[in-house]
């Protein structure tokens, strides 16, 4: 997680920002929170069992990709190399994931947010033409209250 923050997030984050993470223990480490705070990022944790509501891409996009990878794994040819190195296996998984992502359309992504509910905004944060969301500070939704209500 620290490597991802340093190599990716740090270079794209626009202060102030909110990062919504699941409740995985590594995400809740004090060191992670400190590094994110230094980038001007606040963190919201999704309570267990609320992924489908608070992380629509996890359900609408990643789930079909994972299913695709499982299908490919179950139909592997018998003739694959007997000695599979970790590097070979990582490359194979990466290629299957990228192949699965090719099947995900922009409509699939939008529908993931629509199915999650009206409180999940999507679109550019600069109110570009066609964006259905008013991204001004006054219109930002407090997800913590919504997620707590759904979790109850």
UniProtKB/TrEMBL annotation:
<protein>
    <submittedName>
        <fullName>Unnamed protein product</fullName>
    </submittedName>
</protein>
<dbReference type="GO" id="GO:0003676">
    <property type="term" value="F:nucleic acid binding"/>
</dbReference>
<dbReference type="Pfam" id="PF03184">
    <property type="entry name" value="DDE_1"/>
</dbReference>
<dbReference type="InterPro" id="IPR004875">
    <property type="entry name" value="DDE_SF_endonuclease_dom"/>
</dbReference>
<feature type="domain" description="DDE-1">
    <location>
        <begin position="1"/>
        <end position="74"/>
    </location>
</feature>
């Amino acid at each position: 997680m620290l490597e991802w923050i340093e190599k990716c997030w740090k270079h794209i984050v626009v202060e102030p920002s909110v990062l919504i993470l699941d409740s995985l223990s590594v995400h809740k480490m004090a060191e992670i929170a400190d590094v994110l705070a230094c980038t001007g990022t606040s963190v919201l944790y999704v309570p267990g069992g609320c992924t489908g509501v608070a992380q629509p891409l996890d359900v609408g996009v990643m789930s079909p990709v994972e299913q695709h990878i499982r299908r490919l794994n179950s139909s592997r040819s018998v003739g694959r190399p007997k000695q599979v190195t970790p590097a070979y296996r990582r490359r194979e998984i990466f290629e299957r994931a990228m192949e699965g992502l090719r099947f995900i359309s922009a409509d699939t992504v939008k529908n993931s947010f629509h199915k999650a509910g009206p409180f999940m905004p999507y679109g550019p944060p600069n109110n570009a033409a066609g964006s259905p969301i008013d991204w001004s500070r006054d219109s930002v939704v407090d997800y913590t209250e919504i997620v707590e209500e759904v979790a109850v």
